[in-house]
């Protein structure tokens, strides 16, 4: 099979590891642009708490999908997939290499290999399941899923009510197991993906996260969240760094406790990110301090192997 000579270099890894800095270096090296796959940096009202690229970083390389939406807009991974693929194809007309960066595993996967597509089901099913969750609790729904789709029960995060409800509504609405729609042959892409993972010892990752949270507070996170109080029930704001400050603003928590919870929840998030990204066999992992020359050399070796000189 002839390899396409168009490449998407995707940079993944836990929060605060240095993905943004690496993406800019790579974009400058390959003289190309950056597509962000961070599901919270899309929103222009959320800058500090999402550690979006700074004005200087945005000026250092052209970025796409940073602050291009409002939190009041309904935006999901399916829409992002379509828009990102269209953007990458446009960029590939003038450059064989495009950089993608982001810690949102589902959004990264959507671009690289496409989403699992599920049938449309009656919306009232979800309403009924939500009511059942409130009145009878999660365990009842978990047992129902175990009966209808034991494979899904054993593979999805069954302690997450939203995941359980999503699987159940597909089972009930389609009459087929939710798991039967997973991992079908995905869309073939017009580019080859190379995934670069950044990692460090857990202690280092956790220290970097703690430092980053302190910097966010110094940079005005409190004021950013205060301005978003009227929207606190939106799904986009049910996010680490925002939900904890809401608890401080409504006098549920002290500020010190809210900050310590942001750090703790960010560390947990980083752990989940690493679990997700480490499942991908073909990721090239580098220590976060690896010189850029080592990484570019590895990328060029791969590209040259796939596209030997005629």
TrEMBL record:
It catalyses: adenosine(37) in tRNA + dimethylallyl diphosphate = N(6)-dimethylallyladenosine(37) in tRNA + diphosphate. Catalyzes the transfer of a dimethylallyl group onto the adenine at position 37 in tRNAs that read codons beginning with uridine, leading to the formation of N6-(dimethylallyl)adenosine (i(6)A). The record marks 104, 126 as: Interaction with substrate tRNA. This is tRNA dimethylallyltransferase. The keyword ATP-binding applies. Monomer. Its EC number is 2.5.1.75. It comes from Olleya sediminilitoris. ATP binds at residues 13-20.
